[in-house]
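Re: [help] complex structure
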Amino acid sequence: MTSMTVLGNVAAGLPEKDATWWRQAVVYQIYPRSFADSNGDGIGDLPGITAKVPYLRELGVDAVWLSPFYPSALADGGYDVDDYRDVDPRIGTLAQFDEMRAALHAAGIRVVVDIVPNHTSNRHVWFQEALASPPGSRARERYVFRRGLGEHGELPPSDWTSTFGGPAWHPVGDGDWYLHLFAPEQPDLNWADDEVREEFLTTLRFWADRGVDGFRIDVAHALAKDMAEPLPSQADLDADIWGGAHPLQDRDEVHDIYREWRRVFDEYDPPRTAVAEAWVPAHRRSRYASPEGLGQAFNFDLLEASWDAATFASIIDKNLALARESGASSTWVLSNHDVVRHATRYGLPDGTDLVAWLRSDGTDPLPDEERGRRRARAATLLTLALPGSAYLYQGEELGLPEVADLPADVLQDPTFFRSGGEQKGRDGCRVPLPWASHGPTLGFGEDRAHLPVPASFERFAVDRQEADTESTLAFYRRALAARRHLQTSETLEWLKNVPATVVAFVRPGGWASITNFGTTSVPMPAGEVVVSSAPLDGDRVPAETTVWLRLADAPVD
Ligand code: NOJ
Ligand code: CA
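Output below.
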């Protein structure tokens, strides 16, 4: 089927009042700067996304989540926001946002935007005002300022370290220091401040009024902080204290904030949705995912898991139970803009230290690319068979590998700079997409790209894969099309008596997903093959392969 016929068959727009669309949605993450560049300046932009709506439609996703596109000096890839209610001029305009949103909606695709509430950028008008105001002033109350220690405040208020390396406090020259859990260009907001709270309600309404369907909440677990003196030491913070007792992470009060947000989401029909990026232990995740709170939370367990049937099965079981407990649906994520792409991860020996591997420019050890891609396809098909929503990261549908050998002079990630080059950071999964198998940027833009597109990406180019029915792109399209028809109620039943290397379950409607994690083929139950991640071996599931089947002998629902 060509994209024209698919588009022609789609009734324009979205079902108006569907309040449950998010529960089992396939959400495609766009990292706007690296998606498609419409004007040749080397930076992906909103018109670039609009131009690719037919591609997204044909891929078959239900929603897109856009990483930050707001004005930003890009100290942290746009997660340092100057203005929450505007578009970075290099990426587009608000009018172009509206056009993009309308085009996506007309194609039946919902729009999720990224909200970054833990910190603003240091160029935000509030932070500029805080810097221009004296210690103790109202302007400084919106952030987390503290007096320095030592006779003249020349020492930081505590020995805390930031996520990207180096100290978490930055001096402003008058004895005050401000807290930044991430880069110094990302000062932490003070969520005990009413004005801060109000401001974000305004921002949520601003985007909801513009037709945005949902929000992805950055660092959702860190907004509430207990800054009572004396401040604990970093060693205290590193102790494994969860359950609301950690001064900076996952405090119970954070949910008061999300209860207020929920009231805003529910002002809309259908209610706006949200998904929390909350790095908390699994049993604390349900609080973020509660219907009185954000409604859904990322589950990164599979993204962190090694290639092993028992590990996958227990993660699936645990997360389905957690989702039931919270009233949410589960989420499944194998890749995003913060981690080594899963096609590469799975080609590395289990237990590879990814930081050290990146330091070796991806050469020690050398990934087994073919095995990586084979396992990636199998893992993807497995996650797409699960109840709940699947979050895909741009480029995974092309089987893109991590670009581990980017030269130091093009790296942008603050992790690289803050670690003095010790850690390479996350740029290798943020390289622009290859849309065409020719040209200096392989169709991303014209002759330049903000991160170079390696020549080796030619074989992953969209135009090539569109011409090949065995390509990863063709496989993703088949899988998403099948899922659209098959996905029903949010339950599964494990298939019994399967080999230890197999993860197999049946979904309502009598279809099964069978993944063989092992290195030799296993028998397949009788049924009609719907889609498989690799060619089958007669009536057997080959090594490292997932297959979906309509079972001949399905258990009664
Ligand atoms: C999580 C985002 O995914 C990551 O890219 C960012 O660096 C941090 N939050 C800080 O905003
Ligand atoms: Ca551009």
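The radius of gyration is 24 Å.
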